[in-house]
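INTERNAL AUDIT FORM
Audit reference: QA-55
Scope: verify that the stored structure record matches its stored sequence.
Auditor: D.O.
Record contents follow.
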Amino acid sequence: MTAAPFFPNEPKGPKIVTEEIPGPQSKAAVAEMTKYIDTSATKLVVDYEKSIGNYLVDADGNVYLDVYAQIASIAVGYNNPTLIKAAKSDEVATLMMNRPALGNFPPKEWARIVKEGLIDNAPKGQKYAYVQMSGSDANESAFKIAFIHLAAQKRKGAGFSEEDLVSVMNNQAPGSPEVAILSFRRAFHGRLFGSLSTTRSKPIHKLDIPLFPWPQADFPALKYPLEDHVEENAAEEQRCIDQVDQILSTHHCPVAACIVEPIQSEGGDNHASPEFFHKLQATLKKHGVLFIVDEVQTGVCATGNMWAHEAWNLPYPPDMVTFSKKFQVAGFFYSDLLLRPALAYRHFNTWMGDPIRVVQAKYICQEIRDHNLLQNTIEVGNYVYQGLEKLAAKYPGKINNLRGKNKGTFIAFDCESPEARDKFCADMKHEGVNIGGCGPIGIRLRPMLVFQKHHADIMLAAIDKVFSA
């Protein structure tokens, strides 16, 4: 039995009205934009007023089933009525028109807003939060907190020395010590200087930019199907843990923290087992290194848990969990008040995030609860995975390394080559499905939490048609 649609007024299916994509109106819009801004990465020019639910409408009137969702960032559908109502509220209007500088001049309701929007929806064990402007900003700020915490431990309560105060103004030790963040090969953590130093997914992200020479470890390269490679995958994960242990034992400067994605997303949707993350946390604790989990893309139900790392059942909460994308608000949770700097202005900027987005996060989570969207994502994810298994059997060699079983709709597979992957994405657009890639040859599914089985049928039929051509 087909479930009732969450958006009764959304289109019944895709509709492509132009022979070329982008069409003439989109091309004209891009040409006009190019006069003023960089449009080199533009994929579609969108008519957001007409887009609704799971459907995106472009400037030419083409209607796409969107399983990419603004790079995994839309949680509860385009023009969601609950979010529109919240946007028109007096609370949002006041915050928008007065844009408080939250670090110095927070609104009197700020404690309630933060609790309802962030803390009430935080992972287990995460008690505090900093609000930031983007996922990159969140990771960058988490690194700063890790560095400050490490230095505070070394000082053992002592204040700054005169040498600290003088040397730091010249970007030299001891005030500016050499300290590192450990990340993993194929990771993506953002595009600011610190976050970009831990990003390893594509050269184009990093070329020509001076970056920190921080260490990296291998992330497990698992073989699929998982059930056919149990011993090999366990050995691969242990190899990576041993490498982490060796880096932390021998690196020439202290490592303050290790950052990891539950599923490496931009780098190719690379997975690891819960056992890997248990061993990783234990290894970090052995070396006194903080554990940062980057949930920017995996957070907010997409993997079948509100937060992907909750599926690991760790003995201790991560030290910090960064968030953005589907949560709409960006920032990081932290589990221990000792991570909060003892002095003001050590972590600070004018805005300290956007209060409107904290309100928006509250209503997104309300929608998730009211419509049981976590369970919907689990059920639809299983349905999609089974459908892709059948297509993989039907088209051997075209759908490879299918992964994401029992991970909600956070599903991916590999094409035969980079060229085949890019052609597949383009062909799917002509079938009315907006889909995205990851890594060198990967296809990743990032539908919204309101994606249902009848949407899955449309997507699966389009995949079938593209591969049969």
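Auditor finding: record pair retrieved intact. The radius of gyration is 23 Å.
Action required: none
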